[in-house]
Amino acid sequence: MANALTQQDVIAALKGVKDPDLHRDLTDLGMIRDIVVGADSVSLTVNLTTPACPMKEQIKREVETALRNRLPESIKSISINLTAEVRGKSTREKGDIPGVKNVIAVGSGKGGVGKSTLAASIALGLRQYGSSVGLMDADIYGPSIPHLVGASGRPMAMGERIMPIEAAGLKVMSMGFLLEPDRAVIMRGPMLHGVIQQFLHQVEWGELDYLVIDLPPGTGDVPLSLAQALPLTGAVVVCTPQAVALLDAVRAITMFRQLKVPVLGMVENMSGEIFGRGGAARKAEELGIPFLGELPMMSSIREKGDAGQAGSVFDEHSASRMPLLGIVERLAAQISIQNIQKPKMPTLQILS
Ligand SMILES: Nc1ncnc2c1ncn2[C@@H]1O[C@H](COP(=O)(O)OP(=O)(O)OP(=O)(O)O)[C@@H](O)[C@H]1O
Ligand SMILES: [Mg+2]
Predict the structure, then answer these.
(1) For labelling alongside 3, which of 29, 126, 241, 276 has CA 20 to 30 A away?
(2) What span, in angstroms and rounded, lies between the C-alpha atoms of 244 and 250?
(3) What does the pLDDT read at residue 346?
(4) From residue 318, how far is each of 295, 299, 324 by CA, in Å?
(5) Cα 128 from chain centroid?
(6) What is the rounded CA–CA span in Å between residue 282 and residue 230?
């Protein structure tokens, strides 16, 4: 046989096949691996940038079509294997947590809009796709994450390091683990800053694809401390559809922009008959921010949260499953976009 097919021919055949979110050739992104050329077969692996990639089926189809159209007819069998490896940014920076690829804060301008519910759901959802995930409760005065995910116990100290609590497949840290249940936290700004620093840099997070951080309501000290402490991958802003809540969401977005934290997208929570629908999507479009999806008002979400079973919002027949998985996938895609397209913004430096 004169002109046997080579790996280079396969790569050439994939020219122009792009990741639909990242708008670059899969081959340039290093996503095509393990090309094996047989007498009448080709197999390869597409290594996605996140297992929660919303485009995986489309990517697979496009690779297959390109190979079918461009490789010689003698190739009868084409097999495409999908794997995923979450990417972090390409360079390390001051304040980065070693081993933690992406840090995402979930915030809002307003209290009670469902930040903690969404932070927990996002963490659990990313975990469902097989990623390694941490969940940090930065609501120091009103920690609700331990209850939501059914986590309890006291974090152990190992020398200088603090071990997170493992629950529902997540590594969790919260002020709630360090307090008696009905004690209030009384702390001034500098101490609060110290706790945030400790949670980020003294907790043994290990190797994580994603660390999700639940913020307290509003635009106060905690987001500022966070933005100073490390370069965040970005923030998710949660809001409810009514106009007053949207005003607060805009305030939160302005804050993140001032803090040089990329806004990865907006989520509309509790959409439905009571608060209306669609307000957040319109606002996101107006502000040029990705819209990650809406989560309707559902009594089951509150019940599962109250029962400490946040994970069951993903149960097979649960009405919250599909909307939440959609939000998780769109967020994962935005994180990949953030890492590949733009260099990370520097950590905010504030003199105190
Ligand atoms: N989509 C939803 N449908 C029904 N109930 C919801 C929904 N989202 C959140 N809730 C409920 O609303 C209440 C407030 O949610 P959550 O604690 O997540 O809000 P939050 O923004 O974190 O509040 P805070 O500002 O106090 O931290 C909880 O009882 C939660 O179960
Ligand atoms: Mg909360």
Answers:
(1) 29
(2) 10
(3) 54
(4) 13, 12, 10
(5) 12
(6) 31
Ligand 1 centre to CA of 239 (Å) is 11
Give just the sign of the alpha carbon dihedral 180, 181, 186, 187.
positive
pLDDT of residue 89: 86
Tell me how far the alpha carbon of residue 300 lies from the centroid of ligand 1, in angstroms: 12
Separation in Å, CA 325 to CA 52, 126, 161, 169, 204: 9, 9, 34, 17, 28
The whole-angstrom separation of Cα 193 and Cα 146 is 21
**Among the atoms of ligand 1, which is closest to the Cα of residue 112?**
23
Pocket of ligand 1 contains residue 142 by CB under 6 Å: yes
Residue 47's CATH number: 3.30.300.130
pLDDT at 352 over 50: no
Indicate whether 304 and 155 sit together in one domain: yes
305 in contact with ligand 1, CB cutoff 6 A: yes
Q: Average model confidence (pLDDT) for the chain?
A: 92
pLDDT(225) > 70:
yes
Q: Is residue 93 part of a domain?
A: no
Report CA(290)–ligand 2 centroid distance (Å): 22
Q: What is the DSSP string of 104-133?
A: EEEE-SSTTSSHHHHHHHHHHHHHHTT--E
d(CA 217, CA 49): 31
State in Å, rounded, how far the first CA of the chain is from the last one. 73
pLDDT digits (tens, 9 = 90+) for 301-343: 999 999 999 999 999 999 999 999 999 999 999 999 999 865 5
Name the nearest CA neighbour of 135 among 265, 316, 310, 346. 310
- Residue 32 near residue 46, CB atoms below 8 Å: yes
For residue 137, give the 3-state DSSP assignment: strand
Check whether 348 has a pLDDT greater than 90. Answer: no
H or E segment and range at residue 313: none
In the listed set 20, 55, 84, which residue is the last one of a domain according to the structure?
A: 84
Domains held by the chain: number: 2
Which pTM does this prediction carry? 0.93
Instruction: Write the single-letter amino acid at 48.
Output: L
pLDDT at residue number 201:
96
d(CA 167, CA 169): 5
